[in-house]
Design goal:
CATH superfamily of the largest domain: Leucine Dehydrogenase, chain A, domain 1
Oligomer: single chain
Shape: globular
Distance between the termini: 27 Å
Mean pLDDT: 91
CATH topology of the largest domain: Rossmann fold
Number of helices: 9
Low-confidence stretches: none
Largest sheet: 6 strands, mixed
Number of strands: 12
Radius of gyration: 18 Å
Number of domains: 2
Length: 259
C-alpha cells in the first residue's frame, strides 16, 4: 500500500486526508493518507521515519514549508523560486520538493486577471503560503506589495508594515496568506476601503469553508478565490508530483460535501 501524509502543527484542521483518501478510493488505488503532527525541530526525524515506513509522498502545512527546504535533495523551479515546498515525493536518493500552492494560485487567477490593465497585488503575510503567492503573482505579471509584521527583503516586491494596509489603494488582487480568519484564530482585519468592486480577494484559509473575509468581499461584489478551491487545486497538482497525472477533481470535491 502506498503511504502518504500531511505534516504540520497544528494539523487537526486539515481536510487533506478526506480529499486524498476519497480520490484514492474512487480511483481504486491501494493508498492511504494520514495526518501527522510534526513540530519544526522534529521535521527531519519525521521525514526519515516516514520514508522507512514506506511513505512516498508528503504535503506540508504551516509552519513547515520553509523549514523543509534545507532537507531536500532536489526541488522544482516553483519551489526554488518560492524558497518553500508544500509537496514532497520520495525517490531512491531522497526527498524531492515541489510547490503546488504556486500552481493552484496561477490556475485560479489566470482567467480573472486576463483583461486587467493594472495588476497591483497586495499579499498579507510572510510565511510559506505568502512566498508561493508572490511567485504565482509574479508569474502573472503583477506588481507586488507584501504586508507583514516584520520587514522582509524579497526580490521584485515592495514591503509595507501591516499597519500601512489601512491606507486606501487600488489593488487588483488582495491575498490573505496568514492564518487569520481560520477557526480558532482572530478574524482577518478586513477593511472595505482596501478594495474596489473589481478587486479579486483571495483567502488561503479554508476552515471555516466560507471565511469572514470571503463573505465580506462577496457582499461588496468582489470576485473571490476561496481556500477550498485553492486546497483542491494544490491537491490535484500534488498528484502530478506523485503520480505524473493530475488528481481527479470530482471525488475531491465530493469528499468536502460529505457529512
Amino acid at each position: 500500500m502506498g503511504l502518504y501524509a500531511v505534516f504540520g502543527s497544528p494539523i487537526g484542521h486539515s481536510l487533506s486526508p478526506r480529499i486524498h483518501n476519497s480520490a484514492f478510493a474512487e480511483e481504486g488505488m491501494e493508498c492511504a493518507y494520514i495526518p501527522v503532527e510534526v513540530a519544526p525541530d522534529r521535521l527531519l526525524t519525521a521525514l526519515d521515519a516516514f520514508a522507512r515506513l514506506g511513505g512516498r509522498g508528503v504535503n506540508l502545512t504551516r509552519p513547515l514549508k520553509e523549514t523543509v527546504f534545507a532537507y531536500l535533495d532536489e526541488v522544482s523551479p516553483w519551489a526554488e523560486a518560492a524558497g518553500a515546498a508544500n509537496t514532497l515525493a520520495y525517490h531512491l536518493d531522497g526527498w524531492y520538493g515541489d510547490n503546488t500552492d504556486v500552481r493552484a494560485l496561477i490556475d485560479a487567477l489566470n482567467g480573472p486577471l486576463a483583461d486587467r490593465p493594472t495588476r497591483r497585488a497586495l499579499v498579507v503575510g510572510a510565511g510559506g503560503v505568502a512566498r508561493g503567492s508572490v511567485v504565482a503573482l509574479r508569474e502573472l505579471g503583477c506588481e507586488i506589495t507584501v504586508a507583514s509584521r516584520h520587514k522582509i527583503d524579497w526580490p521584485n516586491c515592495t514591503w509595507t508594515a501591516m499597519t500601512a494596509v489601512t491606507r486606501p489603494a487600488a489593488w487588483a488582487v488582495v491575498v490573505n496568506a496568514t492564518p487569520l480568519g481560520q477557526h480558532g484564530e482572530a478574524n482577518w482585519p478586513y477593511l472595505p476601503h482596501l478594495v474596489a468592486g473589481e478587486t479579486i480577494v483571495v483567502d488561503w484559509v479554508y476552515h471555516p469553508l466560507r471565511t469572514t473575509l470571503i463573505a465580506q468581499a462577496m457582499e461588496l461584489g468582489c470576485p473571490t478565490v476561496d481556500g477550498i478551491g485553492l486546497l483542491i487545486g494544490q491537491a490535484r497538482w500534488a498528484w502530478q508530483t506523485w503520480f505524473g497525472r493530475m488528481g481527479p477533481e470530482g471525488p475531491m470535491v465530493r469528499a468536502l460535501c460529505a457529512p
